[in-house]
Amino acid sequence: MEIFYARRDMTSLAVVEGDRPIGLINRDILLSQMSKPFHRELYDKKSCIAFMDKEPLIVDMDMSIEALTFKTVEVGNKALSDGFIVTRQGRFAGLASGFQLLGAMAEMQAEKNRQIMQSIEYASVIQQAMLRASRDALSSMLPDAGLVWEPRDVVGGDFYHFASFSDGWFGAVADCTGHGVPGAFMTLLASASLSQALEKIGPRDPAALLAALNRNVKGLLGQVHRVGESPQSNDGLDAAFFWFDTRQRRLYFSGARIALHVLRPDADHFESLSGERMGVGYVDSLEDYEWALNTVDLPEGSLLFVSTDGLIDQIGGPKKIAFSRRRALEFIIGNRAQSLTTICVGLQRALAEWQGTQARRDDMTLFFAHV
């Protein structure tokens, strides 16, 4: 009792016989018992073992923090409230508190999180490097085009691809399964497959490119149905592929669950080319599926707009509903006289105001271009 009164920060005392710990006395239990009538007269001269826990948690100082954590969970709350005894080769070495253990665990978790975040941040460098060639190509062929790529997390599942040719240019905007690291892995796989398909087929048939990408992704992810086998995953992507023939001023478009929107110079509303409901690479996507090829002749000054669903599905506003495609298109029409860069910034600001305190739902990619 004198020790506890002198050390108000001490929650427990170890009972040691020789150099071997045999029990643990909890401060609150002892002082509570001794405050009862006649307890001091009855127990003052008796051994302290009358108040000790005869089965405290005893651990060797060589035990890892991970093993100690599991051991503490097995013992229960007692180890956290009373603390535990630390030994060295069976001899008493000292006491440790549950708060010290929690602090050590938190420090270890923080270090693991730092390592994970460093890895993810470097993965972001790799992913952005993968996209840089397309961004540079877009800047050279359409200097006034607007492009926004915003992963929900540090890395994401959206990607784009642009390439310039002597008679036109090719563009692709895609939304892969997942966010963060899984989504980023999918973008690497899908982007490499698209590059391979462009080398073999060329850029002028977006529908054929979608079909080739579908077959390749299904094969790489083991999503091709075979007798007696189960698919290894159910991942894929939604995509909009388009080729613009600059000589004929003709747009070729094929989409998998992503639409392309066209605003002609003299029109007061967008013309939407809807993507088909068949996704690319999923288990349910037919291996031999052929996407339709849409062809549209466009007058000079027409505006193209494509976005992934991170824009239109974002929850917000007074009623906590989706931002919607209609709201995005109306904003663009209302600001069509401004530069595409200004429209991009304004649309992002409108989305942020709509989102308010709601959590970000998805990765987002936006593409605007005058043709």
TrEMBL record:
Alphabetical list of CDD domains matching this protein: CBS_pair_GGDEF_EAL
GO molecular function: phosphatase activity
Leader sequence residues: none
Entry-linked SMART domains: PP2C_SIG (SM00331)
Domain annotation PPM-type phosphatase: ranges: 143-371
Pfam families noted in UniProt: SpoIIE
Keywords, comma-separated and alphabetical: Hydrolase
UniProt-recorded name of the protein: Protein-serine/threonine phosphatase
Species lineage: Bacteria, Pseudomonadati, Pseudomonadota, Betaproteobacteria, Burkholderiales
